[in-house]
Amino acid sequence: MSRNTVADIIVDGLGRAGTPRLFCAADERASSRLCEAARARGMPVTLASGDAAACVMASVSGDLIDAPGAVLLRGSPNTAATLAFIARAEVDRTPMIVLTEGHATVVPAGKASLSVTVEAAAHWVAHASRLAMTEPRGPVHLDVPADVAGRPAIPLATSCRPDPLPYPDVRALDAAAGMLSRASRPLLLAGLHCRSASAAQWLRAFAEALPAPLLTTARAKGSLPDPHPLTLGVLGDSGVDEPLLGRADLVVAIGVDTHEPVPAPFWSTAPVLGFGPPQALDDRVLAVQVLGDVGAIMEELAPRLRDVRRADWDVAYLDRLRREGSVRAAGAGLETRAVRLAREAMPAGTIATVDAGYACVATSWPAVSPREFLTTSGLPSGGFALPAALAAHLVHPDRYVVCFTDAAGLAAAGSELETATRLDAPIVVVVLRDAASRGPDPVGLAQSFGMTAYTADGEPQFAEALGRTLRAGGPVLIAVTP
């Protein structure tokens, strides 16, 4: 009978939690006991250029598959660059296990810092996985000392998935239905907890049944398809917030997390009804709060609203706001036209990841499903888009990914161009530059890693580069310079 080591038990626990692969930096960590155990058990090990990029890949992977992403760090998790990305995962509510080998230190940005022992290895990995996936989701640090990882240990059948959310309270549901029945013009806000397939399905039915206009946070973009006539864009980007709030007599915050940036008037102009997971909502600003799974709440509200009068929104007015807001937010520069050309040229289901030109990209890249538009909440996102694009490719290898970044984002994560080339990932890296941009030459940097690269200073050049990319496949960088 084969002997189980602590490393084997850690990898087995991650696998039972749904973790698909292990990320780590391409150095001596790639031959550690945890990596060897992962490969022995059929869990792929993906090498990144450094710890920070590996953290992004793990957190985005966990976010896309609804299971903990896993990253093995080569050093302390409290270095400035790595800690910034762990903090970003906490703000974005992405589940991630941050593994170290002999760094049993407290990580201030995570949900907890745990240390594995030989006697309770199965318990600790199960606890870490459950904690990472328990709402509010986030990163958990799990230290596996090198002298412990290779020691024999006893496997235990422990649950590595979290308990389901409590079912919504009947009295809270009745109170929410009462607020909705009295409202003439409810305004809907969708947040990151609307990004599951079931929540998105109920969100569409809910918006259409009222009917009511909907704004999304950046992370929730696509929860209701952007081409839908009731979708009026991302909060704060299109200038439609003020006129909508001026007419709304109820704000309904659906799965909006406390970490998502929402302009203050949304919490003070009209009464606020909020529902979502526990600890996700700021109950100080809510007139009524319903706790639970977002999809389950909307499903339970449906029969309570069957005979409620329809909302009194002027459809023509909403359509005009929608069109004017789209034009105002996007602008008319080459960057905007490049984003639109990319969206038109790429196949259905293409995923966009965003570092720079945020308002321009969010407005000009229609998303029709949740998690087709990947960005972060509230924190500067330099160095996010490229490793996020690589993670999206690994989760969805059959889909194209377009990464929008700038000079600063490329300076922070440009070494991952080598990773893209090594993986032969069908990623289009669009670098939005202006005359004042500083940093490495994008084309020269890409070519130094063996990646095909183009410069586009107009729409014809950009369209031609995209056409070549789609015919040839593989990773390509296009530097857009007005």
Give a quick set of tags describing it.
482 residues, alpha/beta, Rossmann fold, 3 domains, six-stranded parallel beta sheet, 18 strands, 40% helix, flat
Q: What features would you describe in this structure?
A:
The protein has 482 residues and is an alpha/beta fold. It has three domains: 6-149, Thiamin diphosphate (ThDP)-binding fold, Pyr/PP domains (Rossmann fold), CATH 3.40.50.970; 170-327, 3-Layer(aba) Sandwich (Rossmann fold); 331-480, Rossmann fold (3-Layer(aba) Sandwich), CATH 3.40.50. It contains 19 helices and 18 strands. The strands form three sheets. The chain has a six-stranded parallel beta sheet with strand order 2-1-3-4-6-5, with helices on both faces. Strands 9-8-7-10-11-12 form a six-stranded parallel beta sheet, sandwiched between helices. Strands 14-13-15-16-18-17 form a six-stranded parallel beta sheet, sandwiched between helices. α1 (6-17) runs parallel beside α5 (121-133) and α8 (197-209) packs parallel to α11 (294-304). The chain is flat and about 65 Å long. The N and C termini lie far apart (65 Å).
CATH architecture of the largest domain: 3-Layer(aba) Sandwich
At the fourth level of CATH, the homologous superfamily of the largest domain is TPP-binding domain
Rg, rounded, reads 23 Å
- Strand element count: 18
Characterize the main sheet.
6 strands, parallel
Query: Class of the largest domain, according to the CATH hierarchy?
Result: Alpha Beta
Number of helices: 19
Query: What is the residue-averaged pLDDT?
Result: 90
Q: Which geometry do the CA atoms define?
A: flat
Strand order across the largest sheet: 2-1-3-4-6-5
Low-confidence stretches: none
CATH topology of the largest domain: Rossmann fold
Estimated structural class: alpha/beta
Tell me the number of structural domains: 3
Distance between the termini: 65 Å
